[in-house]
Amino acid sequence: MDKKLDPSRDDLxxxxxxxxxxxxxxxxxxxxxxxxxxxxxxxxxxxxxxxxFKKRSSSTEVACPSESNEACKFRMPEPxxxxxxxxxxxxxxxxxxxxxxxxxxEKDTSGKDGNHDNQEQASxxxxxxxxxxxxxxxxxxxLLVLDCCDLSVLKVEEVDVAAVPGIEKFTRSPKLRNQIVHxxxxxxxDRWREQLDYYARCSQAPGCGELLFDTDTWSLQIRKTGAxxxxxxxHAIRIQYRTKPQGRSVTWTSDQxxxxxxxxxxxxxxxxxxxxxxxxxxxxxxxxxxVRAAASFVVLMSGENSAKPxxxxxxxxxxxxxxxxxxxxxxFTIAVGSWTEMKPEICSSNDVATERSFSPSEADFSPxxxxxxxxxxxxxxxxxxTRLCHEIAxxxxxxxxxxxxxxxxxxxxxxxxxxEDVFWAKAQQQLAPHEAREQQELRACLRWRRLQDEVQNxxxxxxxxxxxxxxxxxxxxxxxxxxRHGLNPEKVFMQVHYLKGYFLLRFLAKRxxxxxxxxxxxxxxxxxxxxxxxxxxxxxxxxxxIPEEKRPELSVGNIFRDWLESSGIPQPLxxxxxxxxxxxxxxQVSAEVSAGDAVHAFPFLxxxxxxxxxxxxxxxxxxxxxxxTTVAKWVRVNxxxxxxxxxxxEEVFEKLLPDQLVLLLEHLxxxxxxxxxxxxxxxxxxxxxxxxxxxxxxxxxxxxxxxxTKAYRDVExxxxxxxxxxxxxxxxxxxxxxPRQQHxxxxxxxxxxxxxxxxxxxxxxxxxx
Length: 769
Description:
Its cofactor is Zn(2+). By secondary structure, this protein is of the alpha+beta class. Strands 2, 3, 6, 9, 10, 13, 16, 18 and 19 form a nine-stranded mixed sheet that branches. The protein has a four-stranded antiparallel sheet with strand order 14-15-20-17, with no helix packed on it. It is globular, with a radius of gyration of 28 Å. The model is unreliable at 1-5, 51-114, 120-133, 347-365 and 591-629 (pLDDT under 50).
């Protein structure tokens, strides 16, 4: 019996039949129209059949069968120093099950204009096989299934690549179009420029026959009369299509100056509402794209080259980008708007590198486009710096090495979270090693608190890092699968894969010793660069590199049980919580808070754990002692009567790091009552409204909790300028049952809902209405 998906709550299907045929290269030719909020044009797919079941004679390697534990490999030109393209990770929101799509036969889904739209009522997800079988069979026709949603498909045709002048040099059989495509894809890496050129020429070749196609909610299905196998199916096809203004892969909005822009948003459905594609992680491909827009706009994409516009007639410009490293379709990124280039001021005219295209041998490993929220740009540099370090870490974990099963999101986000601290410490060259260590321990303390909140306020089934257990990595016979909780809007805001993954790697690094661990990590990256992995690939190699004396109670099975396949706080981490509380910078904020003065900073610890700790350097210890009673000082300020004697001494407060301010405000949030006078002093002394978004968020929580009406403007500003980070505040405003706060929440939502991403807007709407 077919299962009807709830498009706002259920699992998300990956329906592409990648076991039978793979897209190896995309050529996109698109026009961006801001007036109609539509992107329209063509995409040409260059396909290869049977990749799962045979190895090619060139440098390419094929995807391994799903039951194998070996890491999957994908094609990558040599040498391996190929630029990665984007900070969207393989494993962001993806999962597997054994569901496949059930075809609809010859049902007519044409719109009034003769095109086929993805129909909301035609989900057709079933655990049965395809009604129209997509594999090799006797009498029925082969069906190419692509992941596709919120698109209007106008036409599908085979491309006559044999008509391209000069193409005969690639094959001894110039009339066999599929053979031409195969030979073109098999060109060696050092001929990448020639390969891209001929891909472009082939994409402009005339059509040689329209193909039959149909759509449902999640897929585009294409077939050719008489083609019974993937080998017989055309290996170069052109799809003419247009996006829809409400499509969930891109956002049409305005920038801070009110000028129109459009960009990919990291949607739970990835790019399937931007172009028809193959979503499963095994579907690695290269691409090139030509995008036209009005000459006043700048087109940015996740390409390896720095594109310059080509002026066209009628005030339009054309931009061209490409990538030569096979990547998942979800990493394709576009942003069109009135962007301004800002170059580093420290560079002299002689130092500024000229814009040029990078060859695979010249390129580095850094991402070529990173999206940062404007929330990271205010306050001090720490929030922006750490977030940027996190995204750069995805160049290795998430892009150069990807998860074979996208439910194992921790393989991307856990590693990036762990490495962001290392990168940020290196970026702060003025920091002494012990100061960098103290900052890392403080962030570990804050992450512990966030993980506690997460496991207490989320469904247990969404706290498991390896939910498919022994079925992890398995797909259906066609290659299709299901992303568990993929359409649940709350999943976007969960951090459990980041936090539990981070603490697992921290635990392993401590067990091995950091020098040994990072030496191993470099070896691991070298070994698995350009491959898809499962958790056991990392853990097995790690354990092989651990000396016997450091292995007690460590095994792949034990780590699966304690860290990856259970909900809640892992047991090994429970045993480390006291050490987290003894971080020196944390104790500068919270130590020596007696039961009579305030609630303990760490209510899960015994009182003896909340005291000053010995420190290996005296200067820092003395400094900590001066700051140790910060919370207690604020508690005393809060308890003083409004009118006090002149002779009462003023408390002296020292400057705190942003992370220390976060911890201080979290402790004060535990207080039952904080007076308006205390809140006013807090804002004045620490200039809270000018701090970064993490600090301002806690400040807004205090404002809401204690109904500090004089600072409601700070809450309004946060909700409108820091939209995604403000989701929790909407809940607090509504739970307060205060009419003024509830009116503030509804007013801010109405002002900003059109600019919010759809997942955020759905969650807030549920809170408010």
